[in-house]
Amino acid sequence: MSVHGIPEKISLALIGRSLHRGWRDFLGMAAVSMGFAAGFVVIGLGLMVGTVTVGMGPMVPALIGGFMLFGPVSMAGYHALLSARRAGHPVRLRLAYGAMRHAGRPVWVMGVFCSFIVLIWLTDAGTLYSFMVGQWRHDWLSVLPHTSQLLRFHAGAAIMGGGLALIVYTVTVHSVPLLIRGQGTLVTAVTASVRAVGRSFFVHLGWAVTLALTVMASIFLLPALLVVLPVVAYASIYWNEAVFPDAENGTR
């Protein structure tokens, strides 16, 4: 199946509808959704503890921001769960992990692309860290910008990372869901994603900010990520279906 036609023009109201649908889908399979999210929570906690332990506490926000860029690839698991529920099939955790493991090559190409951008982000943030902080910080308080020095560092890292994150978002926000749905090739899916963002840029920007703030806040309160991650994943699936509806996979 290919990507047809012009993306639907959307309004800001879709943000609220998407989150509502995501929450409703989460409630319908909360246990398995949280179980799948648990793996990402453990990885995130490990990265945070490791970064503070080696004395680079101020790098935690940049690391978390980079970790968020892998979110699109995890969509394969949540899409499998949601598709099974819609079809009335049993919803099991192994279904989500199997979907990620057997995701098509284009999806993993997007994962490699995200990894490359993360490395650029962390390299830039590390360079900025050496110039603006330049000392080992083993305390958890250093994760937050509680001094003028740390505030400048976090602001600089956020500006650099924000630009890279916008590139990743524009390329992946629709291409990964489309590829998971079996619509189009890597090139056509990426082109469709960029076209959709450009067609409703400020609405997509609002969605990006909503996702970033929600996920970032929940990562600092890691247990909350068990709920937030699946909710935004299901909401993102609904978002993609609203922009690229088709006869087989309508926005029910």
TrEMBL record:
Domain of life of the source: Bacteria
Record's keyword annotation contains Transmembrane: yes
Pfam family, one: DUF2189
Transmembrane segments: 26-50, 62-82, 103-122, 153-180, 201-234
InterPro entries linked: DUF2189
Keywords: Membrane, Transmembrane, Transmembrane helix
Protein name listed in UniProt: DUF2189 domain-containing protein
Provenance organism: Denitromonas iodatirespirans
